[in-house]
Structure formats: C-alpha cells, structure tokens
Specification:
mainly alpha; 2 domains; two-stranded antiparallel ribbon; elongated
Length: about 130
C-alpha cells in the first residue's frame, strides 16, 4: 500500500503509549491525553476554504478598483431567497445581470457609494456574485 502525500492531523494521544496499552494488559481505556496537548488544538497543514482569502486590509474603494469585469449573480433564485439579505442588497443584486459594468450598477442603485461597495464586497466574498 502506498503512503498518502496528504498532510494529516496528529492524534490527540501518544501513539507509543497506545501501542503499549493495547499490547499490555492495561487496555486502551487507560490512555490519557498528554499535558502538552491538553491546552492546544492539534495543528494541521490542511486549510479548508471555499475561496481564497481576500485582502481584508483593503478599503471598499480599493477593493472596487481591483475587481475586473461585469458583476454576475451566481446563485439560483431559490438560493438567493435563503440568504439573509436586506432590501438594499436585494435591489443591488437585481441590477447585476451580467450586462452592466460595476461602476454603473453602483450609480444606478442610488445608494451611497460606500454602502453600495460594502454590500457588493460582502456578496462577492460570500460567493453570491462573481466578476466576469
């Protein structure tokens, strides 16, 4: 059997102690978590993410200058209904049909530019819309 190249999380117990307990008469019930690990979670090299971490230090204006393309909604109407959107976010989403550029959408919305950019950024980072 070939060993996997995927990183794994180390077990929360001492493996050699486990081997002695199973082989000896103590049984596995006597295992205790080592004191060093009792206060910290096991580390892992695996990172589970749905999309790359955005540069959170960017202001909304700076973020808006980095997006390229036309905003397009990626969710079905049923999925959109499940989102906790307020009326402003819903209206902004309704303008993003893939035919109008982002700056025009912000202007057409009639919302304060800062508010519109904040809402659009939250929608983008949640995966509700993309720019193509």
């Amino acid at each position: 059997m070939r060993a996997s190249s995927k990183p794994t999380i180390p077990p929360p117990f001492d493996v050699s102690e486990y081997a002695r307990a199973v082989a000896g008469s103590e049984g596995a019930a006597s295992l205790r978590r080592p004191a060093a690990r009792a206060h910290s979670a096991p580390s892992s090299h695996v990172r589970i993410v749905g999309r790359p971490i955005e540069d959170s230090f960017l202001t909304n204006e700076s973020w808006a200058r980095t997006v390229e393309g036309v905003p397009r909604v990626m969710l079905t109407p049923d999925e959109i209904k499940q989102l906790p959107l307020d009326h402003r976010a819903g209206f902004l989403l309704s303008l993003m049909d893939g035919s109008v550029d982002f700056d025009s959408v912000v202007e057409l919305s009639g919302l304060d530019r800062g508010d519109a950019l904040e809402i659009a950024r939250e929608l983008y980072e949640s995966g509700a819309l993309i720019f193509r």
